[in-house]
Write a structure and sequence with these properties.
Blueprint: E1 3-4, H1 10-20, H2 22-28, E2 30-34, H3 36-46, E3 51-55, H4 56-60, H5 62-72, E4 78-82, H6 84-90, E5 99-104, E6 119-123, H7 129-141, E7 146-150, H8 159-165, E8 173-178, H9 180-186, E9 190-194, E10 200-201, E11 211-215, H10 224-229, E12 232-235, H11 247-272
Helix pairs in contact: 7-8, 7-11
Length: about 270
């Protein structure tokens, strides 16, 4: 198979644009996955990607060829081989894995039970792709279904966010450019805003029933409008000397307190029926 070595190749130009431009990704409806793990998860959920771009060394490795055969079988996608130096130049991460997948950004399907979400997350102006990806990863692990992003949030489908989420995107319904106040108003359960100024703590409230957590910008926190739109305002108690938590860490604590309370409720109910 021929090996691409020039950045002037049309596909390479496209990949560079997809890596660097959120607007281009949205117009094209495409993005990039870096690494075997992300590609495997994508294939298990959504099928074969449009194109695989692999470094020359990666493709020549016998074990890697065997992996591609096992992963795709007879439905192997188009494979483009590029020089190792070129792959390092176009990869969205500092340490390329040797394999990229060009994928279509999944369309958000409309469902009949809109407005009846059980566990949702609202994110206001989360600007760091790593933070956003980590929040999505924790959300998927906690069985969150819908994630709503304000217009000021980082691009959910950037390669850096995808890398940080470790495949969580493909198990969530991600809504971008949302009016979060409207989402909060229409949510059928309890909307809970997180703020270090809140007097009530996470561990003092019931998280039974449909719940939506709201998290704000890494530096400024939530806007006054979003705090007012919530049914509850809570903080996370910190007995140590740290003033605040990273947004992703705070989100994970909240998600899994919801998981803990739901499990405790189920266990109590099962005892009562025996």
């Amino acid at each position: 198979m021929p090996v691409i070595t020039s950045r002037d190749h049309p596909l390479i130009k496209q990949l560079i644009k997809l890596e660097g431009s959120s607007q281009y990704r949205k117009r094209a409806g495409l993005t990039l996955l870096d690494g075997v793990h992300l590609i495997q998860i994508y294939c298990s959920v959504l099928g074969t990607p449009k194109n695989l771009v692999v470094g020359q060394s990666y493709f020549e490795d016998i074990e890697n060829k065997g992996f591609l055969n096992r992963l795709f079988g007879n439905t192997r996608p188009k494979i483009t081989i590029v020089s190792n130096a070129l792959l390092r130049g176009i990869s969205p991460v500092k340490t390329p894995t040797g394999i990229l997948a060009l994928i279509a950004i999944p369309e958000l399907k409309k469902e009949s039970d809109h407005g009846k979400e059980i566990f949702s997350v609202l994110l206001e102006a989360i600007q760091d792709p790593g933070n956003l990806g980590s929040i999505l990863r924790s959300a998927a692990a906690a069985n969150v279904r819908d994630v709503y992003l304000s217009k000021q949030c980082a691009d959910a489908w950037s390669p850096k966010t995808l890398r940080a989420s470790m495949g969580a995107h493909f198990f969530l319904r991600i809504h971008e450019n949302c009016d979060l106040q409207k989402v909060a108003q229409e949510f059928s359960g309890t909307v809970i805003a997180t703020s270090i100024q809140a007097t009530k703590t996470l561990f003092e409230i019931s998280l039974a029933g449909p719940t939506a957590f709201v998290f704000g910008n890494e530096g400024a926190g939530l806007s006054k409008e979003m705090i007012q739109a919530a049914n509850e305002n809570i903080s996370i108690p910190m007995p140590g000397k740290t003033e605040s938590l990273n947004a992703a860490a705070a989100a994970a604590i909240c998600f899994f307190e919801k998981v803990r309370q739901d499990r405790a409720s189920l266990e109590f109910s099962s005892i009562g029926t025996k």
